[in-house]
Amino acid sequence: MKRNELDAFWLPFTANRAFKARPRLFAAAEGLHYITPDGRRVIDATSGLYCVNAGHGQPRITEAIREAAGRLDYAPSFQFTHPQAFDLSSRLALMAPGDLDHVFLAGSGSEAVDTALKIALSYHRARGEGGRTRLIGRERGYHGVGFGGVAVGGMVNNRKQFGALMAGVDHLTTTYDRARDAYTVGEPETGADLADELKRLIGLHDASTIAAVIVEPVAGSTGCLPPPKGYLERLRAITAEHGILLIFDEVITGFGRLGHGFAAERYGVVPDLIAFAKGVTNGAVPLAGVLARKHVYDAHMQGPDHAVELFHGYTYSAHPLGVAAALATLDLYREEDLFARAKANEAAFAEAMMSLKGHRHVVDIRPIGLICGIDLESAPGAPGKRGYRATELSYHDHDLYVRVGMDTLIVAPPLTAGPADFADIRDRIAKVIARID
Ligand SMILES: Cc1ncc(COP(=O)(O)O)c(C=O)c1O
């Protein structure tokens, strides 16, 4: 006999021992709610993991997946592919701003990020600037869990267990300064000059060694850090001036989270590459990818016709079920005008979240679009403990699911949620934090 039937599954990003002592399970989902095995309806305040942007159980997406599974279970995309892969890529290219006209498909956000970093390296090499190998990320950035993404990422807990990661990486400083920005709604007024830090790094390493800068337009998993006004525009100007590619990691910010198809539109900045995932399929099937500008793609299209231009790809690139789910999801977003709905609800969402100011332990609240970080002051000598308690109390006693990173709650409801749902989420959070020591 095995000691414990919960032992076999080693859960990701989880306190396994505490979890297995008192598990938190979801057996089904519908609209804004998860349903527990014992039948409780738990409001989903974080769209799963920021991916179920149209709410759970959308019949149109379910049907598209079912139809695809019955028609074409799998097709390789190495030297072959299937027709819908072109439909999806064209749709995404049309959605993206500027000449972000080419799409490389992958399976997860982490794969998308590593793909974007590799494309940046191969781009420079293809143009005869193979010395540009340095990659620059930012403190408090999250770019998934591949070696490349962790190396350019800036969350210490995600880095410290894994040794030297990748050589030749440097980081911009975070744009977050609590003393300056606490309780700011949306983009802080000051801090654009932090982009000039890139000039310092160029001075240190020389532009001829730097391939790309990668940032999340709004840092998500670290606790929702909106960019200071003008910061992204400045990063764009400096990267362009020095021949450095700018990569936006839009794994969270894409597909309506900030009221637009991509954050690039919100900020009027066209990066050279965009990594996307999550909301592209409403979370229903893993699918992700990279949008590349024309000059990036064109630089690769050289050499003999029979030669592979980019030695990169995944067994599940353009998986038929993911592609079908994505096409149905994009239809749904458009027909229900969900990005505009998110934009229209941004102020009401911010107001609901900001009303938690003054509640016990709360030291900052940062809403933007339909995402908000709520920082709790860490318990003395025990960072993460209050956050874990919030996770437990929310699920077991208050029928609330909200993602917690250390002591920060990250609220990001489906774009189908409205003011009454924001108030409901807010009330539940208030009850939870009132009970934390
Ligand atoms: C900005 C960003 N990039 C990359 C990832 C990694 O995505 P995945 O977990 O699908 O690998 C995430 C996941 O939350 C993310 O927020």
3D architecture notes:
- The chain has 437 residues and is α/β, with parallel strands linked by helices.
- It has two domains: 3-54 and 337-434, Aspartate Aminotransferase, domain 1 (Alpha-Beta Complex); 62-335, Type I PLP-dependent aspartate aminotransferase-like (Major domain) (Aspartate Aminotransferase, domain 2).
- Helix content is 37%, strand content 16%.
- It has 16 helices and 15 strands.
- The strands form three sheets. Strands 4-10-9-8-7-5-6 form a seven-stranded mixed sheet, sandwiched between helices. Strands 1-2-3-13 form a four-stranded mixed sheet.
- A hairpin with a 2-residue loop joins β14 and β15.
- Pyridoxal-5'-phosphate binds next to α5.
Give me some keywords for this one:
437 residues; alpha/beta; Aspartate Aminotransferase, domain 1; Aspartate Aminotransferase, domain 2; 2 domains; 7-stranded mixed sheet; 4-stranded mixed sheet; 15 strands; globular; binds pyridoxal-5'-phosphate
Gist of the model:
This protein is α/β, with parallel strands linked by helices. It is built from 16 helices and 15 strands.
Q: Any chance you could write out the topology, listing elements then pairs?
A:
Layout: H1 16-21, E1 28-30, E2 33-35, E3 41-44, H2 47-50, H3 59-71, H4 83-95, E4 100-106, H5 109-126, E5 134-138, H6 147-152, H7 156-159, E6 169-172, H8 178-181, H9 197-205, E7 210-215, H10 231-241, E8 245-249, H11 263-267, E9 273-276, E10 288-293, H12 294-300, H13 320-335, H14 338-354, E11 362-368, E12 371-376, H15 385-398, E13 400-401, E14 403-405, E15 408-411, H16 419-434
